[in-house]
Amino acid sequence: MTESAREFDPETAHPMVKEVMERSQQNLLACYQCRRCAAGCPVGEETGYITPDRLIRMIILGDRENALNNQLVWRCVSCYTCGTRCPNDIQTARITDTIKKIAKEAHLDPLKPKVAHFHDTFVNSGIRWGRLNEMEFMSFFELKNTLKDLKRMKFKAIYDELMSKTKLGLRMARRKRMHMGFQSAKGRGEIKRLYKKTKKKTV
User: Fold this and answer.
1) Please, what is the Cα angle at 123 between 198 and 101, to 5 degrees?
2) Each residue of 47-72: pLDDT tens digit?
């Protein structure tokens, strides 16, 4: 797939580069497009031509719209292969996390809603109880997916998802990989305070 030419937009580029660098703590300007990150990215085939180096290029050129709306941001699995291969130690996984936050703050629809639901449910469960309770976490995660499909009248998708997860749950239960208990951790108040402090710092 051939990538179209991009133009430099200084009015958008400078503030965006500054914001992403400050929030991700990564020096984007050190990237010289050697593409070693692209060669090792495990999701590169699923994102079209959007590889870690291309995402950095979008940000540097001020292409805000495409930087906030691309498959790499939502398909990145945070394996940190990009950073391991990068000669300048740029961890693009931290950049994709930052872009996710910026997109969420801008109220943009995620390209992969299930990924967004997974992240939100995981964080909320951890903050609420101090640890993850698998049954509660998966229940809320599936509920979010179901409600979204209901709004779009995708009844077959709801049925397929229900059957798929039921079969998976039964297989995990047989192998004793499904924890049915409910636990909480001490210091939940401190976790909540730290989370609120972090939110204020990044806004």
Assistant:
1) 55
2) 877 899 999 999 999 999 999 999 99
